[in-house]
Specification:
Elements (H helix, E strand, L loop, with lengths): L2 H31 L2 H46 L6 H81 L5 H13 L5 E5 L2 E2 L8 H9 L12 E3 L3
Parallel strand pairs: 1-3
Antiparallel strand pairs: 1-2
Helix pairs in contact: 1-3, 2-3
The structure holds zinc ion.
Length: about 240
Amino acid sequence: MTLLLEEVYKLQILDSDILSTAKLLSEVKFKISDNKEINSLEESININSINLKKLQIMKSKLELEINSTQQNVYLLNKKIYGGSIKNSKELIALDSEKIFLEGNISDNEDKLLKVMMKTDTTEDNIEKLNNKITHLKNNKEIELPKLKYQEKELSNKIIDLKSDRKRIVPNIRQDILMIYNQLLKSKEGLAVVKVTRGTCGGCRLSIPSADLQRARNASTIVRCSSCNRIIFSDS
Ligand SMILES: [Zn+2]
């Protein structure tokens, strides 16, 4: 095995580590800034609050209507039973008006009951949503210091890995480095793979023994004939 390939393999290990650490870091950063759940709960509270206002307006309208109709019934009763009206036709007319108004009151009372029930449900919903938000915010408050710590640790790790990388890169031949960098981009961060039991660590297909031999001895790089990655064999 050549020293040349060993350095390229070291670089690959560093780059893989940088890649996975960066992925973890972005997950941690996302968790720190993610307020999606709280925002959507707040949105639901807004919708419920608008509904609650509408229900409150409906409630006072109905109450006013019921009151004024009750007032009218009271006045009708006064007329009907006051003894001032002798005409029976007029009495019958007043009586049917009274029946109509009483029906109206009963309808409005039904409506009022429904509005009050909806109001209760909406108030319950708002309370539940608020509790959920408080719970989430409390959790986040507990999690945040841990996440911030992780963020710092991972950032530091990346800085260290990158400085290791800088030290290794000058040991690698320019032409090989170019191929390596191209492969790193086109092969999802995996340019150099180890050969285990004759199989390529990238595509899992078997490497012809002649290629394996060359990979062990040659002073140049050998690539997997199927996935094109640089193969590395330390056995
Ligand atoms: Zn392969």
